[in-house]
Amino acid sequence: MSTPLDIIVPVLMCAALLWWIGRGMSSRAMLIATAATLAVIAGVLLVQNTIGGR
């Protein structure tokens, strides 16, 4: 079973990393990078919960 920290910590780390890297990016590129990163995080959590739920 996942805890709220399983979701909060990766999202906060993603936000900090995107802020650091994306300072020179346009707003549209930043939005695309954010959406892709959040999709990867959601996919990893989904796979982790599916495999761990066996």
Topology:
Blueprint: H1 4-21, H2 27-52
Helix pairs in contact: 1-2
Mean pLDDT: 80
Task: Please tally the helical runs, counting DSSP H or I stretches of 4 or more residues.
Answer: 2
Low-pLDDT ranges: none
User: Helical content, roughly?
Assistant: over 70%
Q: Main sheet?
A: none
Shape: elongated
Beta-strand residue fraction: under 5%
Query: How many angstroms separate the termini?
Result: 11 Å
List SSEs in N-to-C order. HH
The assigned structural class equals: mainly alpha
Using only C-alpha atoms, the radius of gyration works out to 13 Å
Number of extended strands: 0
Report what the structure shows.
The chain has 54 residues and is mainly alpha-helical. 81% of the residues lie in helices and 0% in strands. It has 2 helices and no strands. The chain has helices spanning 4-21, 27-52. α1 (4-21) runs antiparallel to α2 (27-52). The longest helix is centred in the last third of the chain and has 26 residues, at 27-52. It is elongated, with a radius of gyration of 13 Å.
